[in-house]
Amino acid sequence: MVAVIGEASSRVEDKKFLTGAGKYLDDLEFPDVCYAVFIRSPHAHARILSLSTAIAKEMPGVLDIVTADDVELSKLNALKPFIQENPNTGERFSFVEQPLLAQNITRYQGEPIVLVIAATLAQALDASERVEIEYSPLPHVVDVKEAVSHKSIKLNSQIDGNIAVKWNTGNSEGIEKVFDNADQVVSLSIQNQRIVTNPMEPRGVVADWSKRTGRYTLYGSSQNIHVMRTCVADMLGVTEESVRFIAPDVGGGFGSKNFCYTEYGLIAWISKKLRRPVKWIASRSEGFLSDHQGRDHQSEVQLALGKDGKFLALKVTSYANLGAYLVGSAGGVQVVQYANLPGTVYNVPVIELKILGVLTNTTPIGVFRGPGYAEANLIIERIIDKAAHQCGFDRAELRRMNLYKADDMPFTNALGGVVDSGNFPKVLDMALKKADYSGFNARKKKMDLNGLLRGIGFAYHIKGTGGAPDENVDVRFNEDATISLIMGTQSIGQGHETTFPQILASQLGISKNKVVLASSDTDRIAFGGGHGSSRSTYMGGTAIFNAVQDIISKGKTIAANEFETSVEDLSFANGSFTVSGTDKSLSIFEVAELGRNLKHPLDTYKKWTREAMTFPNGAHVAEVEIDPDTGIVKLKSYTAVDDYGVLVNPSIVKGQMHGAIAQGVGQALLETVIYDESSAQMLTGSFMDYAVPRADDLPFYETAFESTPCATNPLGVKGCGEAGTIAAPSAISSAIIDALRPFGITHIDGPATPEKIWSLIRSTSR
């Protein structure tokens, strides 16, 4: 059967995952492998007074113990952030490179200090307990505003005021006049709490240096093998060609596996030193302490409105907690990407943004599903709700009257962002109808009789997708009449083995069973942008489309030679090249065989560089029920109407929607990182204390699509992976505050736990 774009076919990869046939990092076997364990700092900020490995080195099975002194002697390089300057202005960030192992001072709880390698994991763990380290605790700071104002606590002497990134944009000169003349001004202070990514499969790496080739081969649970190769090579001080990075099946990432960590360079180096494979896989508690975390913004927001409810101006001052080091793309996504979003759905003529990226004695912040956009969406949607109540507007109507219209497309917002396509009012109306907004008051009255509180909330999200600006694809025709499709993007469970063959097969007019996806090996494809920022279908799909155009062109030349006719007389459809007006025809696989024999294969490598982002968007509506006696929140319904452009495979898209919403629910109701004020110890360092959503926390979702084809790529697709994570916290918070409004409660920072809600209710009177 010929593949079709838009067909909701089942996921090809599910069979192996559901039957246990997948091969994850810990499933790989290596002869003579040894095991690594990291000793991590128990202190958020401390001076290392002494460190002794003498006893530990004599323990059974110990092969080596590595400290910062060994790293220095070996001339290994510290880890640099992947994005080191403002991509919009070119202004360099202020940062200190992250040492591979802490030397003299440790700056966050969980920072690696010592590496222990032994023949077995148990032996490495036993030896790690005999390493003797003496610390002298130093003053610490975990709150972002305190870090800026507290001049006596400096994480690095080279960084002034603990500020790594400064970003001001918008119209600072004219905005005060707009606010002075506005009919209404609404203000809001809001915190977007820190969360742990918690992918199902922990982070890890196996390194195997080859004496024969002089190359390092690393196997890792990673979202971006080409970035890993670059960073590992840099830490080792070798060429990229000396490093091969392979990702087997990956059990989730959500951003935490997008960029490199110091452990990867160390494990590669020690493999060469010991001349044998070395395996390190983080424990769950290590993941809590050391995986790059997400969110953690504190913001002050002001919105100016006219009498008619039209938005006039927006001012935002945000403090982004970056943790102890600037890592990965944190400066780019937590600050700059965040700054580019406001005014992209709603027409706000004048915007001023002031954002500081600040260092603290906490785990470094990286990216988490929807980074920057989720933070911005929360402040925009929450200030709109407050404005509606303060100025006497229906919350849905206030949104509708300020949305950009379909006739406005394409438009350029106040910050210079260009959006190509969409119909925001139509999507909002569809969501309100599907959620039965008109019937809400009747449902609320019924719950009032039962002593329960009912609330409904809204959020309109948008996300600029694209990630790395280039993507690569290699299409190879095999002798057995199949096609190997090698992608620079990377699968971490999204359904790539289904969608990418579906795209290629539909363009060639063949069965998708003829296409086999291969990726996740830097030796198989030299360059690639990996996975992140909902880029895979947009970037990878467009690269495939462009490769197909070259394949058809090559095929026509080969077929024309065979038929002794001109290229202009040939057409291509349904997997065959046909001479116009005749029954002379050759299948694409027959042409591929002819090409091989002629030494002109159809095989095609294609690199594509995007010129613009795509902008998936949508309206989400949440309805909650709250028991005022306990503070328990039940999410009664959740409605999402999204515009993802052309849907390659609707069932895959729905799966992405559902997973993203679940993570958004977690942030809204359950998840938060808490540090002890006196010690800066993470109090939520395990699933005993850190809550994630379970099945009974989630309702059945109501979903629908309004597909406005994207104008910036030939497939018309838009990214779909992050929408729910962006919108759900805003929509659910909106619903909770709506339910609590009879008590005079107008704001609550996430997560909205029962204890927090119960306390707020008790502190007010109805």
The termini sit apart by: 64 Å
Shape descriptor = globular
The CATH fourth-level homologous superfamily of the largest domain: Aldehyde oxidase/xanthine dehydrogenase, molybdopterin binding domain
The chain-level structural class is: alpha+beta
Biggest sheet strand line-up: 3-5-1-12-9-10-11
Count of individual domains: 4
CATH class of the largest domain: Alpha Beta
Judging by the overall fold, what is the CATH architecture of the largest domain?
Answer: 2-Layer Sandwich
Number of strands: 28
* Discrete helix count: 20
CATH topology of the largest domain: Aldehyde Oxidoreductase, domain 4
Helix percent band? 25-40%
Give Rg in angstroms.
27 Å
Low-confidence region ranges: none
Strand % is 15-25%
Main sheet specs: 7 strands, mixed
Mean pLDDT: 94
Polypeptide structure, described:
The structure is a single chain. The protein is of the alpha+beta class and 766 residues long. It has 20 helices and 28 strands. α18 packs across α19. The longest helix is centred in the last third of the chain and has 28 residues, at 536-563. It is globular, with a radius of gyration of 27 Å. The mean pLDDT is 94.
List the defining traits of the structure above.
alpha+beta, Aldehyde Oxidoreductase, domain 4, Aldehyde Oxidoreductase, domain 3, 20 helices, 5-stranded mixed sheet
